[in-house]
Amino acid sequence: MLLLNHSEYNLECGTDEAGRGCLAGPVTAAAVILPKDFKNLILNDSKQLSEKKRTLLKPVIEEESICFGVSHVFQEEIDTINILNASILAMHQAIENLNTIPEFIIVDGNKFKPFKNIPYETIIKGDGKYLSIAAASILAKTYRDKYMDKIHEEFPMYNWKQNKGYPTKEHRAAIKKYGITKYHRKSFRLLPEQLKLDF
């Protein structure tokens, strides 16, 4: 059973990101503040749920939360500032997009940088412990998946509709065959060492 709140504050925001380990596309973060009486029996870490359940939960979270924010940080920025900084930046931007200022922030994982002067805590596997982080993980994942489906139309040979930019065998084989696109993260090891690409 996931817990609603970690702190004593009423306006506690959970934040999480999706797409950190991908070879292409943005890293996407969401931030969610849930009301004190929020209950949902299906809601869990997005990785534990089917795509169908995530799709069902997305409008529930958007309608029942006090507020939510989502942000993409794209591959050019990831290549410039590195994936960890890009993930934290995406979370900061998602919190910035909330129309209510949170009193406390809980973050999935173990790395974060202070946001304004708001107290925060990092929680390892937080998306499986707290409802607001789980809700953020679902929004981050569904918004990012939608974006990857859209760019799939432009470059169908990488099958992003299916792999969402993650390093599947098929995705790596397509990189080997077709080279890279403007959506690929050039700072990532796109192919194993023995298959080096000439950029």
UniProtKB/TrEMBL annotation:
It is an enzyme of class 3 (hydrolase). Its EC number is 3.1.26.4. GO terms for molecular function: manganese ion binding; RNA binding; RNA-DNA hybrid ribonuclease activity. Manganese or magnesium. Binds 1 divalent metal ion per monomer in the absence of substrate. May bind a second metal ion after substrate binding. It catalyses: Endonucleolytic cleavage to 5'-phosphomonoester. Its main location: cytoplasm. One of its GO terms (biological process) is DNA replication, removal of RNA primer. Residues 10-199 form the RNase H type-2 domain. PROSITE patterns: RNASE_H_2. Its cofactor is Mn(2+); Mg(2+). A divalent metal cation binds at residues 16-17, 108. Belongs to the RNase HII family. This is Ribonuclease HII.
